[in-house]
């Protein structure tokens, strides 16, 4: 790595954030360190977006979106498990609150802001309805199996699965996720590639594509640059999630001081963890690559559930904390409304700023009701 590459903020940001994580892990921070950590967290988020776009441009779609979604989710699972093991207040519902928040943020927030930004810039956004529809159907299935059914099963007291039911939900969600990834990356990869206004696939599309869809002026970055970006992407994501954990006491204190319910901590954590994907999706929408934005949003929602629940199912016997996954009535209504609106958005294969505003309004309703249940 050259000296100039070492001195770039996209290199220094993740490295300094990781160093801060090492120095602050497990310690009580005062006001000044909390502010410094927050600044480094923001730098790591922006660096993660940059390196994700480099990797995505090199490997093409939908692999680029898949890399970012899976990387964030794997580290998110580690964060959830770490917070659950701590046994603090709300640990039993932390996984449910965080995963549901991630689902609402991705399916309403990332989808909504991507459509709004794309339509404001280009008038009308166009995407592949076959691929996006299958992604939404898979998200709906895993969310219902893992988050809605525990509320209505009677084998265990409260919104919990019995061990057998949890094992079935874990296997089912993992099976759906693997089946979707194979569909997305193999036989029907073309369903998840960006399209032009006439529905024609834009070959070679990546997050770094041009505004007009032409790829001839953009060449894949050198191999060493891609490898460096992949390493720095992973470093940045570890730093983002780790520093979110470091900041969690300050977040919990702020939530209590504001008189908000403990479950709102899961919303804040999900917002922090999904920040890199949100910015990457907005950048793709600005470049007329709405399909990439939707791949990121729905892929992240799917991975958040499809990888978190199986992991927790394996670890539950070793964690002395009950696992309450069932959503409450308000959350079930919001999830159902999200699915209906998402379906109506996806079916035409194109959307205007109205659909973006509708999705963002649903996100606002979720955040408001999470703060004021």
TrEMBL record:
UniProt-annotated location(s): Membrane
InterPro entries (UniProt xref): Alkaline_pH_Ca-Antiporter, NaCa_Exmemb, NCX_ion-bd_dom_sf
Alphabetical UniProt keywords: Membrane, Transmembrane, Transmembrane helix
Predominant place of localization: membrane
Classification via Pfam families: Na_Ca_ex (PF01699)
GO molecular function, one term: potassium:proton antiporter activity
Domain Sodium/calcium exchanger membrane region: start-end pairs: 34-185, 229-370
Membrane spanning stretches: 36-59, 66-87, 99-120, 132-152, 164-183, 230-251, 263-282, 294-319, 325-347, 354-371
Membrane topology: Multi-pass membrane protein
Gene Ontology CC annotations of this record: plasma membrane
Keyword Flavoprotein annotated: no
Record's protein name: Ca2+:H+ antiporter
Species assigned in the record: Lapillicoccus jejuensis
Lineage: Bacteria, Bacillati, Actinomycetota, Actinomycetes, Micrococcales
